[in-house]
Amino acid sequence: MAAQTIGYPTFSGPAVPAPPVAMTTGNTMQAMYDAEAGGTDFWMDRLLARPGNDPAGTWLMSRGRALFMKTHTPSVLGFGGQVAYWESISNQAAFTVTAGSGTWTEQVNSRWQAPSHWKSTHTNGSLRLLQTKFMSHNNVAVDNLAFTNTGTASQTVALRVTSPYATTVTGAELTGSRAVKNNLTTLYPRLSGDGFTAASGALTRNVTIAAGATVTVKVQMGFVANEIPESLTEYNAYRNAAAQDVFGAHVRAYNLWWAQNLPYIDVPEPAIKKEIYYRWWLMRFNHLDANMPRHFEFPISVEGSLGYNNAIVLTQPMHIDDLKYLRNPAWSYGDWLSVGKVSNGGRFVDNPGDPENWSNSYTQYIAEAAWRSYQIHGGQPAVASKLAQYAEGDVKGQLSYYDRDNNGLIEYDWGALTGNDADAVSFHWRAGNLDRAESAYVYSGAVAAAEAYAATGNTAKAAEMTTIANRIKNAIQTVLWDNANGLIKHRHVATNALVPWKEINNYYPYAVGAMPNTDQYKQALRLFADPADYPIFPFFTANQRDKAAAAAAGQPGSNNFSTINSTVQFRLYSSVLRNYPNQWMSAEDYKKLLYWNTWAQYVNGNTQWPDANEFWADWNASSRTIQYRSWIHHNILGSSNFTVIEDVAGLRPRNDNQVELSPININWPNFAVNNLRYRNADLSIVWDDPADGVVKYAGIPQGYSIFINGTRVATIDRLARFVWNPDTGAVTFPSGSATVTYNQAYAGLQSPVQVRQTSTQMVNMFQKVGVNLNTGLTNRALGRLEESR
């Protein structure tokens, strides 16, 4: 049998900027921020900066909680392109600035943008303009225009600012009223500038610039919404402040968010380290916190702000898996609260605020991911109870809707329902409904519901959901198992024939532990040893032998690869290497997947230009190039930071108050995950190999260690699976062994159900679904009212 021979990718690009301070076992991200808080130059901005002519496009990285640029035209002064408030308002600019006569030419090589702001240089004769623009958290678009006269005589420049959304003169401002797409809310835009006069639908003023002098002018536009009162407050504050003060306040506030929300993650491969932080930016950029009643009323991730731009259930669990490692639980809880509420107690469906994209119910493991988020952050029993109810509704709803022959398996007849579209080769074999291996996710949802009910003491409901889970698991193992070939196969319902054409989807049952771990069932994993079946990279959907057979039969479909595929492959390796050990899939294969997944994010492997396109196609194995990158840029069709934390660093979410580490050893000499928020405590995991004689983290003991609130509580001498009990300090080894070099007890570490979520944001979010976190009780009447809205 062939082996996976692809090897490792080669990265190019400039050196990845080093952090300003060394890692500590306290709060490294905060220490980094504090070291630079006196200025406006921050590590995250330097790390993710995009200078010059960006091959991924001219997209504006800066955005507000609901405001962003759907397209961005740098040659237009102001915010040219298509401004969006949750979605493009009317395919027009936010506002544009006309400055004097003649033509302003952008000097593209001088362009520089970071996550917090954009800078561009424009010239017009002897005038030079440095434009600095950004969007604030509460949806204020700010443009600082610094005009420099490089000539020998004074010049006067006439400035004119207009916006299609603010045309009514109100004192020195222009104001307006505009409904957003689908009439989800109404905006009340306000446009103003330093020293400008409002008249005839425009802001105007003259600026006189002495020879050799620079004059800075600030223009701001607030996209005010009644449901976000902070939008007006922030606009007024920015309007009344000086340009540099506004810029400084914004950049510091933007970068403080990283310090307050991110764990610090260190790995020895610079390209992977940068990609980790790029993905954190992606999660922030592709996030909507609009507080719109009925539709987008929770903080939620959206699958592609620059594309489909909706809370699409297919990818929501992948987002939750990453978002749960942000320190604020609202970022992960918002996703499952939103889908639970808009689904009205049934199968999970896309957010109805954007019916174009896609208004359906797809393959997803939201309940499973939601339960893991609860294992990390915890909350009152009422939180677990609400999660259990939503998970139960999804499981029963999917079976009711998709299990037409009542055999415990969902049936699809359309590849789009898997999220793989024409890549899903099994649908091309024979028309009609197929009993699907994706039923594994309904199984994992039932398991999550059972565990959530058990956490609240509802043993009857826990038993009911366990029975449903077992029924699905048994159906997978019997209806879909091809004993002759030793493989899981989808089944054609009408003819009862097993479908010979396969995808990586056939292995979802292994990813969720729905298969026995006997040699008989492990045999199915043999195909992952052969790149002719399932190459590590590209991470295609279809089995490549079967895709070739389909093409020969006149059904070529498509053969794309994307982060959604690497995500499910990470999940598969995570489960297989722990639960189904075999000779065909190894930690080395997982490591290659980790590296190639990172490489694909960078345009031509250049770490200067990360761009997580929706998908890629046309891999050239000879030149090792991706010849097609899709039209949706900086997308979150999938996730990967979770696997660094859970598989490389080894954190395994649990239901009790103990900490379990179970790393996949990829022979890295060091790594660290610092200051995760873990049940109201701060958890750090550090590995520094004591065998290589090199100290990687000064002042931190070598070995594999757990720290709670900065205090070391356990260290072993090698990478191995172990469990630390905070009540006794005991270290145990469920499998394997190592030498314990340090351990101690730590009082007060909580199990998930012991945690009390009390932040104003969390209280408000759960109030919307009828849960009072202040009392821990569920208002059933309010809950029913909210669910019906």
Automatic annotation (TrEMBL):
Source organism superkingdom: Bacteria
Record Gene3D superfamilies = 1.50.10.10
Q: Which InterPro entries match?
A: 6-hairpin_glycosidase_sf (IPR008928), 6hp_glycosidase-like_sf (IPR012341), MGH1-like_GH (IPR054491)
For biological process, the GO terms are: carbohydrate metabolic process
Which SUPFAM superfamilies does the annotation name? Six-hairpin glycosidases
One Pfam family recorded for the sequence: MGH1-like_GH
The UniProt record lists the Mannosylglycerate hydrolase MGH1-like glycoside hydrolase domain at 323-534
Record protein name field = Mannosylglycerate hydrolase MGH1-like glycoside hydrolase domain-containing protein
Organism expressing this protein natively: Paractinoplanes rishiriensis
Lineage, top ranks: Bacteria, Bacillati, Actinomycetota, Actinomycetes, Micromonosporales
